[in-house]
Amino acid sequence: MTNTATPLNNRGGDAGESRLKAAIFNEFSWIWGGTILLFVVCAIVAPGVIKPGAINTMLPFAAILAITAVGMTIVIQQRGLDMSLPGTMTLSGLLFAKIGFLTDSTLLAVPATLLIAVVIGSVNGLLVARVNITPIVTTLATNAILLGAVRTISGGSYMTAPEELAAFSHSRVAGIPTTVILAVLFIIVVSLVTKRSVAGRRFVAVGANPAAATAAGIPILRYQVATYAVAALCYAVAGMLFTGYIGTASHIAGNDYLLPAIAAVVVGGTPFSGGRGSVIASGIAALFMTLLGQMVLALGADTSVQLLVQALAIIIAVTIRYLPQLFLFFR
């Protein structure tokens, strides 16, 4: 009699192979290949963009965008959209400079700025989760208030960044920009927390199905409020780094980061349906979007064309994600 049963060790090997394929080929993995392809395209049509000097100049801005994308990713995982990014980022850079000069202490300015950002994010979270105001409406209103505060504090003018912040933003460790190292740390920590911890799994459950999470006894209010607080913390760090890198606290610093941050999240593969998401893919997508913008500028296009390209990147990314469903629909 022939034994057709599959050996247990083979089954284990097949299961391990399946898990490996799922980890490598998923909705978040294509951005790696897309980024490599973009580097190849740049080498052909705009080789100056990928020269060492240009890369060194680009990486800090890509890192700052990656940090904002981390915050936007976790908000989108909770089925939200944080439109207060420009106001929070701008106000944080301005407050850091203001508090730093008033107290003559960056050690005091950093926690004070971060605390204010956490309060802003917590208010957003409470209005969304407790008062049930639509996230986009809540954060748009908050952004308007924050930009009004920026105008009041700055008077519409620039403020010089503290020397310590400027030195930190331009510093390097083993030739790597400190901003890049900080962005990588943000991505690693958030990724580990959301994927490896109990709190992270509950966070994903709340984003995927709030009703089911409530039925399971998960305190969804706590997670929803914390989401916006952590996102605001990310924007504040990005705002301070940006202020230090350009050397001034601008009253319009965050305006150019909202669409790229959303684009990085969408291009990275995080869906608006909630739950699933990858801050690692969003971080790589931030590099992709920054390099794409530099390529467009190197080809002689103006800023308006760059915005158009970012919008097209979002549309293409969403279309690619739903192509399998479209094929099934037309079969």
Automatic annotation (TrEMBL):
Query: Which superkingdom?
Result: Bacteria
Entry keyword Nucleotidyltransferase: no
Question: Pfam family of this protein, just one?
Answer: BPD_transp_2
Localization, UniProt: Cell membrane
KW DNA repair (keyword) present? no
In terms of InterPro entries, this protein maps to: ABC_transp_permease
TM annotation in the entry? 28-46, 58-76, 83-102, 108-129, 136-154, 174-193, 225-246, 252-272, 279-301, 307-330
Q: How does it sit in the membrane?
A: Multi-pass membrane protein
* Keywords of the record: Cell membrane, Membrane, Transmembrane, Transmembrane helix
PANTHER family given in the database record: ABC TRANSPORTER PERMEASE PROTEIN YPHD-RELATED-RELATED (PTHR32196)
**Which protein are we looking at?**
Ribose import permease protein RbsC
The scientific name of the source species is Sinisalibacter aestuarii
